[in-house]
Structures are given as structure tokens and as C-alpha cells.
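We examine the record.

___
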Amino acid sequence: MAIVLLVLAVFAFSVAIQAHQIKSFFYDQQARFYIYEAEEVATFFRKEERPEVIQERLQILSQFLGASISIMDKQGKMVYDQPASGQQATDIGVDPGLLEKVLSGRNTVFAGKLSGSEQDIFLASVPLRKDNQVIGAVVINSPLATIREQINRMLSFAVLGALLGIVLSTVLSMVIFLRFIKPLVEMDKAAKAIAEGDFGKQLQVNSDDEVGRLALSLNRMSAQLKEKIEAIERLDRLRQELVSDVSHELRTPLTVIQGFAEALHDEMVKSPTQEKFYLRNIIDESGRLKDLVNDILRLKSMEAGHVEDMEYVVLNKLLNITAERMRQIATAKEVTILTKLPGEPITVFGNIDRLKQVLTNLLDNAISHTPSRGKVMVELGVQDKWAFFAVKDSGPGIPPEELENIWERFYKLDKSRSRRGAGCGLGLAIVKKIVEVHSGKVTVASEVGKGAVFTVFLPLNQPPEEGADSP
């Protein structure tokens, strides 16, 4: 309501100013016009002496102007007087003050009532000169009501135009306002939806102005918030799975150790051979517990970015020795390990034990997923400024939706695997961390039914630099 009143007040003020300007402009133009015509009459009067010709000229001009024309001498006596059609002659002599101004020898403009008269007139006069002497004046006048009608007509058009402009501008403003406010309403709804837990809410962006950029920022914030919330939820699930998996991995060997230890303690062993078997199982399960704890500690050390004893490592030799050591495990499963190594040495800067663990974990993973009579290929090479080694198996492959998850701690493709020696799901997580602290990168490519290829990239023959570009 306040805005409407303000608009109306501004409109009324602007109309008042416009009316005043129109009135002043019209009076000024009318005065200039009358003075110009009066000067023409004065010029004609000085050149023409025939009264009938002068009267005829005044009659024609009076009809054209719609105004009365008078020529008076210096004493104020009318020499010629031509009233406008339908109008009575105006005797300015009834107003001595005006008559004095008219005969003063200067151009005069007057608008208003004559003394002793009820009629409003608009008058303009110019001096009539002969031999540089004022001998009289030429006066042109018309009723002011006629001029006011014209002014009022112009004001009506002006007011009508202003009203039309206000209506059009109001409609246009409403359209622009609605167009501007609609995205803001949508942003408000989106913000409320996000506050209520609908993370990832996106807005449709139809412009590149400030509102459009604000909507894009809200979309980015919503997407980032969704990613972070999902990451937090995923991390929480992983923590829960971590507790569950660690508890499970610890429970199995502890149960076996407790069972065999109690049997020995209660003297339930029937023979030395059985006693040896029980002790062997206790030792094996203790070793499994030790390996699990060592893996967790090692992963924690890798996450802290700590790598000890860095040196130059020849990968050809490392891959050859590790492949030979793993062939015994592969042969037991009827799996063949093949190597493809270049003749020239390829050297990297790193910790030999950690790099050996990377290759061992990848080979162990490949062998465990390759069926009997299958093959595992180990390849070493150079790509640009990077050394790489790839381990390819001929197993069942990894589903595309699982590729991002295999690097998580305790993650297993086969959730039902809990048999002894099946692994605790830390191998690939350790691989990824070891490679990252060596300023490298590990990738995986797989197609279901055609096996998987794990490729490790490491900087060639130089200490790792912070922020080194990955291949």
C-alpha cells in the first residue's frame, strides 16, 4: 500500500510540474508568435498608406490568427481595429497601466483581466516606429479562454500519456519483478528442502545474470553438500564395517587358539601327534593375528605419509624375485605366472620392502581370483617419465559398480568369504597408500568375465616431489 501511495504521489507531482511547464511553454510560444505577426503588421503599415489595403490585410490576418488586431497612435487612439470573428473589440484604454506599457516603445506581453473588465485576455504588442520615433503600437490579443482550452487539451493528452506510461511501466515492472522473484522463490524452496535433508537439490538455471549465478552457486553448494554428507555416511558405514570386520577377523583365530589351548590345558590330547597338530594350529592362528595387526599398523603408517629407508630400486630385479617367490603359491593352485620384463634396468626411488609388498599383494590377489589352469601376467615398462608395472589375471573380473570400492579397508567382493586364509580386505588399501606416498598412482581396469589389470605408476629414478603430476 505504501508503495502504491508513493507512486501516486510521484505521479501527481510530475503532472503538476509538467502542467506548469506546458503552460509556460505554450504562453511563451504564443507570445513569440503574436509579436512576430505584430512586427509584420508594423512593417506593412510603414510601407502601405492606403487604408483599404491595410484594413483588408488586418482582416485576413485576424481570421488566420483567430485574434483581434489593433493599430493605435501615440495618444492611444485606435487608428485601425479589426476584431476577431465572433468577438467584440477589446479596448485596452480602459486599463491605463496596460496602455502605458503598450505605448512605452517596448514589446509587451500581458495575460489576465483588464481593469474594469471581466474578460481574461492574452495580449502582445510591438511599438510602431517611423523615422526612429515611436508613433504608436500594433496590438494583437485574443480571449485567454481559447488559449486555456488548447493548454487544457494538451494537458489532457499529457496526463493520458502519463497514465498510459504508468500502466505500461507497471505491467512491465510486474513482469520483470515476477521473472526476478520466481527464481528467488525457487531458491528459498531449495534452501528449505536442503535444510530438511533433501541434499543434492538442484535448480534450473535459465539466465547468466546475478540471479542465475546465485542459483549456480546454490547448485554447487547443494551438490558439494550432498557429496560430503554421502562421504560422511559412507565413512560411518565403513567404520561400522571396520569394527565388525576387525571383530570377525580377530574372533576366528582367537576362538581357534582358545579351543586348542583349552584342550591342551585339560589334557584332552590323546597322542603326541595330536598335541603337535593343536600346537601348529595355535601357532598358525597367532601368526594370522600378528599379520592382521601388522597390516592395520602398516596402513595407519601409510596414511600418515611415513615411509622409512628410501633408496633407488631396480624394478626389473624386484619383480623377478617377487614373481619367483609367488610361483610356489601359484603352482599349488595350478596357476601360471608369466613375466614380461625389458632388457634395460628401470629404476625408481622408494622403499624396497614397501614396493615388494605392493607387488606381493597384487600377485596374491591375482592368484586367488584366477581359476585353476589360469594365467597371471606381470609386465614392466616405461610411459613418458613414469615407470609402471601391471599385474593381469584371468579371473572373473570386477563389476563396474565395485571398482571404486575395492580400495576401501576390509572391503571384499565376496561378502560371504570368511574361510581361513581368505584375507581380511586390507591388501588393496595398503597397495594404494604405499603407491601414494611414493608420489605414484594405481589404476584398475576390468571387464566381467575377462579378468582385471592393476597398474602401478611410479616416478622414474628421482626422489618423489610433492604435487608431482600423475599419469
